[in-house]
Amino acid sequence: MFELTLQLALILFAVALIAGFIDSIAGGGGLLTIPALMWAGLPPAAALGTNKLQACGGSFFASLYFVRKGMVDLRSMKLSLMCAFIGAAIGTIFVQMIDAELLELVLPFLILAIGCYFLFSKKISEDDRQQVLTPSVFAFTAALGVGLYDGFFGPGTGSFFALAFVSLAGFGLAKATAHAKLLNFATNIASLIFFLIGGQVVIVLGLIMLVGQSIGATLGSRLVVTKGVKVIKPLVVVMSFGMSLKLLWSQYM
């Protein structure tokens, strides 16, 4: 049975801080927080729900920092935010009805492909390039699709959003990371609502970790603004390979 002690709260606060720092730059913070919550004694559903609460803090403060620095134009993102939110809501409903086993098998290789793209692609830079999709088409395809995935499964959502902005919207890497975090905040909120309705959130613990996430995310966001591609690209590659290995290990070992 789960019991929140001061020592456990401090440990999970520290984990959330580190995860928030990493997540604001490259995504994948859930690789740290979800196992930590399950180690603390939470059932899987409660771990996922509580993780969404603390993740909302990190994605909110990272997004806020990027908006204040002028890296994100909120008005141009309204449609994508709405589509990402709706997609995540639908995904959260579907995950309760559909077997995710096939996605579990395919996901490590998808995330590995993202890592390889960021590692080898010559398109990855600070400069914007020609967009492939208009903002409206991007919203109804990439934003909706990745939002659906985040509600349904979740790992690597930030990396999927960043990849979409780089390859489809023509954004430079720092700008793509900033916009990815904004959409990730929308998907986190959507999923959190449904987890709260289902009673799968340990609110006190989630709020403690939310503070840690917020601090880490603010620190990581500053690095994105000051260092850009120099820090984002290697960390995205490392996190993508790390996520792939962890998912493969959990399936086959």
Automatic annotation (TrEMBL):
GO cellular component: plasma membrane
Topology of the protein relative to the lipid bilayer: Multi-pass membrane protein
Keyword entries, A-Z: Cell membrane, Membrane, Transmembrane, Transmembrane helix, Transport
Lineage top rank: taxon: Bacteria
Residue spans crossing the bilayer: 44-67, 79-96, 102-120, 132-152, 158-177, 189-211, 231-249
Subcellular localization(s) per the UniProt record: Cell membrane
Assigned protein family: Belongs to the 4-toluene sulfonate uptake permease (TSUP) (TC 2.A.102) family.
Protein name per its UniProtKB record: Probable membrane transporter protein
Record organism: Shewanella algicola
